[in-house]
Target: Periplasmic heavy metal sensor
Amino acid sequence: MKALFSTLLLIVALAGSAAAQMKDWHAERAVSSAPPAELIDALTRQMAEKLHLNEGQYIRLRAVNEIKLTAIDEIEWQYQDLAKRNAKVSELESQYEAECSRILTPSQLSLYHTEFLHDAVPAKTASKENGVG
Model:
């Protein structure tokens, strides 16, 4: 009887420990979950309309967009320092552009740069703006 009670107590302890570990695992996974499919589809659909993508390009670009959005979420979660976060996002953007250059034709790539990257580059201002300089 004593052995049965000890065995039962050991099983309950192990099950409790496993349940606690699973809660921690689910909590970690909830933070780094993938972005919603609607967001990925909307971004890819917008790019497909403006760049006139064929079906193969659409499928490849959707996968790249999913990776990019997931990586952005992870970067925002991991890096609290704004300078490090911006550096990582900049690195990610250069990798994304390299992937786009593999998927898109040269004319589509040129259109991508004019349509989607014009907001990413800040405009240069004159040195005598606001009377300073």
User: Anything to note?
Assistant: The helical segments are 2-31, 37-51, 55-78, 82-103, 106-116.
